Amino acid sequence: MEYIKEKATGKTDVTAIKRVLDESLNEDDSYCHKSRSQLYSMGLKAEETLTLLAQHKSSVKYGYELSGDALSHLLELAGTREKEAPLRRLIESPFFLVKSCWLYEHAPYFYFFGEWDPKDLDSLIIDFASQYETRFLKNRVDIETWEKTENPRRVIATTFWESKIIDPLLLVRKAMDDNLEGIEICFDFHPFNYSKLLPEELTREKREQIKEACIRSGTKIDIHSPIVGPYTPSPDPSKGKQRFFDPTRCIEVQHDVIELAKDIGAGSVVFHFIDSANLKKIAGLIEKAGGSDVRITIENYCQTKQCQNSDMFIACMDEIFHSLPKEVREKNFGLTLDVGHLNIEGQDPLVGAEKIGTWCLANGIYLRMHATDNYGNLLFSPPAFSADVHSNVSGRGVNNALIIKLLRSMGIKFDTVAEQIQPLTPEDVATIHNAQTYPLAKTYESFVKEGKERLPVAESGALIGPEIVKEKAYQFLAGMEGITSLREYLVYRKIQEKKNLSVDEAKRISQEFIKMPQKLRADLTTYIDDLLLPIQSENGAIQKNVLDMVCQNIAGAVFGTISNEHLNRIFDRERVYQKGDTICEQNSVGHEMYYLKEGEVAVYVNASRVALLGPGEIFGEMSLFYNINKSATIKASGEKTKVGVLTRKGLENLFKSGQPYAHDLIYRLYNILPERLRNLNDKYKTAIRTLHLIFDGNEKRIPSLAHITMDIKREEADLFPNLSQDEATSIYQEIKVFDTDQSVFSEGDQGDGAYFIIEGKVKVITQSHDFKEILLGELGEGEIFGEMALIDAKSRSASVVTLAPCKMAFIAKKPFNEFIEARSDLAFRFMGFTCLSLFRHILRLDRLYSDIKKGINGF
């Protein structure tokens, strides 16, 4: 350990120093007076001693190497600002110094997002010290007058996203004041929220107070083990990873959590299940609770090395279960079912819950539930650390009430934690409480039996197919609520299967569809059929990519969760309208979209007002990407309504700019645009094939599209816009040479790599029903192709054949994916180039499709 050697003098025994530092890790005294005294006796100075204790604790116990420069700066900050007494006092605690240093090193990425003034960073640390002292160390809560909560609501709240309260006693009181059954407290370090605590920060006195508070109020208390922590090996979230993400890789911290649970009388400690290769270590955590009343409940997680659907999770938990001593598995082992995590992994939470509940019932396993409203595989980019963002449990992403009823009908008694990102609303509490107290007239098996009888006579089709009929969870739903409810549930399941949308987008799509007036719903259906949907297959099956397209194109969805600061930069062109001014007209052609910055606008369809939009609303996205008429008239309904405008040229400039504020948008479009282009390809190919079929291949009768140029003309400086030649070479590491009329790849092939044309020209083609060539486009120097199959892992959407001798740079699938996932500045600039290319292809192909439709309509 270099930091010990640096502090040790020639006369000081490094081994002796390390022994004292190791012993300091177990001291209850947060100031480590005993260890300090020993280090002083070895000739170390006060500042050296403090720094050593902090570095050792952070490195050995928490696995994070502190920066010497950051430590020196914080000590200087505390020593030179006499008026900042809290920081000066608290910095004497080695652990507070550790925590301050973590915050100092992470804040540039999580608080200031790469743009900060050193003075602002210092102010953040000073504010942290002040709040820590006043809201935690000096906070006093009088529990003497507390009484047991009468008839609490059957809901347990979580504190994972609590951003204001530090003292756990206040969290317990909040649950009591809200008339809730209990509280699940998350102990952690969040780089984006310094209100969280780690177990060693709670003194013996504080632990006794928490336990007494829970006894007096009758509040159940559970603990969620740390899952974030400092990012290692770098605080930059694009380079580092959460230290506490896998509990088996920071065992000392988890042991602290278990001991804390014993001290405060917690019923359960939740540990995320991350790596199936570490089952023995997980079993060891459970055995650590042996001899106490604490249950270690293992929670299914998502986005790990293996897909954690219910079958995989059960298999691993079964192995752990049978490895434990009988007394431990009966008293200290349990599961926490997170229904949102099943959704992210692509499994219907109702189906997964039924399987996990059945296994728990058969083996006598203790079960608890995390109710969430996760909407499938959500899109995210740094500094967000996961797609695991939980919305209100009363939403429609996950039918929490239905899952609770299913598990209860089996005879399982369990607690339900409302794990969401915002404060509980009355609707959230009612959703869980009503489901927990709902009178069930029949048993699970009786509901299943009734559903089995109803399903065979139900009308089959796109939703209710053979696989639905034989699924027990769906049989239960059909038996309890009927076929109509099952159909509605399955529509929402189709929405959940999409990818690359934010939770707000998915939530809005789910909820707004059922609230939509009939006229708008009919208009939307026509609009979807006309623009977005490929021709349905003969059996009428709903295609997943169709639903993706519907969801991605409603109401500015792509831009919906970008920060306000970045939206202001993206929509930098501004217009000011007076009351009554028209911003855009229904049925008119438009090539721009809008971001409402100030004021209010009204939405009119066929002269009838259907909605009012306020600041922050985004509208007109489809006009940016497709050549369609506006579906509504938008008028300013307030004076001095300020609207930000983004034109097609402005979007192209964003793709070229490489600006950090555009990164989130570029990453989202990079994942979404290939699917949009595929849909246009499908529609265009279908239209051309239909014409060939109608006119039996008579080319003269097929509408001419010669007036639409296949090449995209651009200036030389625009080729590979924001990447130098050296950077381009570092991405495309192999050169391939092709002769004229040579196939590069064929439609239906699996994507093996992406190509960049250095010299030459190619055509993109498909075939008609009679095997005649259909030209989709021509590409020349400076253009990329083949990347779509790498982005979405689908087969090649068309064939590519050379029109002249070609020299192309090539990158294979694996290095391509690794390069993109690095999320480096170069990767974002490359994604911007790719988006620019895809965007131009979409505009061109949409124009082709529109013209061919006009030709078809003329016959």
What does this structure look like?
The protein is an alpha/beta fold and 859 residues long. 46% of the residues lie in helices and 16% in strands. The protein contains 33 helices and 28 strands. The strands form seven sheets. It has an eight-stranded parallel β-barrel, surrounded by six helices. It has a four-stranded antiparallel sheet with strand order 13-20-15-18. It has a four-stranded antiparallel sheet with strand order 14-19-16-17, with no helix packed on it. α19 (444-454) crosses α21 and α28 runs antiparallel to α33 (825-857). It starts with a helix and ends with a helix. Mean pLDDT is 82; it is low at 379-385, 499-503, 505-556 and 705-720.
What distinguishing features does this structure have?
single chain, 33 helices, 8-stranded parallel β-barrel, 4-stranded antiparallel sheet, globular
What is the overall shape? globular
Largest beta sheet: strand ordering:
1-2-3-6-7-8-9-11
The total of beta strands comes to 28
Roughly what fraction of the amino acids lie in strands?
15-25%
Oligomeric state as shown: single chain
Number of helices: 33
